[in-house]
TrEMBL record:
Highest taxon in the source lineage: Eukaryota
Keyword Secreted: no
Cell location: Cell membrane
InterPro entries: Insect_Ionotropic_Sensory_Rcpt (IPR052192)
Cell membrane listed as a keyword: yes
Transmembrane segments annotated in the record for this chain: 177-202
Alphabetical keyword list: Cell membrane, Glycoprotein, Membrane, Receptor, Transmembrane, Transmembrane helix
A GO term from the CC aspect: plasma membrane
Protein name, UniProt field: Uncharacterized protein
Length: 207
């Protein structure tokens, strides 16, 4: 999850602990209503989550993330939203128009729900584990952000910084060809070794 604000806010909101000071300066804090993140704050019995819930104004809650982004640019409004969703929408609307808090909270993952005893569940688990361990999720995210950035730059007559893509990390997907060549070379070596051993054995038997 991430907290967003307009870049002109002199004291950046970089964590949940910065929200009380921002609220004291007239900023309202909102999120998407009827979601898991609302439940987390609403049910908190102590700590910073409970303090944040006291700051939240239900009248400022929105039905969709796009409405929250509209409010950020129209009024003194801070929007709590999922990190990936926030990054994508900020890029689509012009990354330089928004400030994303440096510190995130409540890491959240997504899964596939199946009926009890589903025969394909082990295969799903195996496939998802491979995708996560290979770094494909981050790679796909970077691709989508790059596409959104290019689309935003092309549709805007004002040059922006969003067209500058960050260098992508090398993942297993980039190294697939190298692994294939390595395996092919290994198999060739094994075949050659087996052939040589067989030839040596046959030669000895002939003599």
């Amino acid at each position: 999850m991430a907290v967003l604000a307009v870049p002109s806010y002199e004291t950046p909101v970089d964590s949940l602990w910065d929200l009380p000071a921002a609220a004291a300066q007239g900023f309202s804090v909102g999120l998407v209503k009827d979601t898991s993140i609302q439940y987390i704050f609403q049910e908190a019995k102590s700590g910073v989550y409970q303090e944040v819930w006291k700051l939240l104004d239900y009248t400022k809650f929105v039905r969709y993330p796009d409405h929250g982004f509209d409010k950020i640019t129209q009024e003194k409004y801070l929007f709590i939203n999922s990190q990936m969703n926030s990054e994508l929408r900020a890029v689509q609307r012009g990354r330089q128009r928004f400030y994303l808090a440096q510190q995130t909270f409540y890491p959240q993952g997504y899964g596939i729900a199946c009926f009890s005893g589903a025969p394909f569940l082990p295969k799903f688990n195996q496939m998802l584990m491979r995708i996560l361990s290979s770094g494909l999720i981050s790679h796909w995210k970077d691709i989508e952000l790059g596409r959104a950035s290019s689309s935003s730059s092309a549709s805007s007559s004002t040059p922006t910084l969003t067209g500058n893509r960050k260098p992508e990390a090398i993942t297993l997907e980039h190294l697939q060809a190298a692994f294939f060549i390595l395996v092919l070379g290994f198999l060739t070596a094994v075949i050659s070794l087996v052939g040589e051993v067989a030839w040596t054995a046959w030669s000895k038997s002939c003599w």
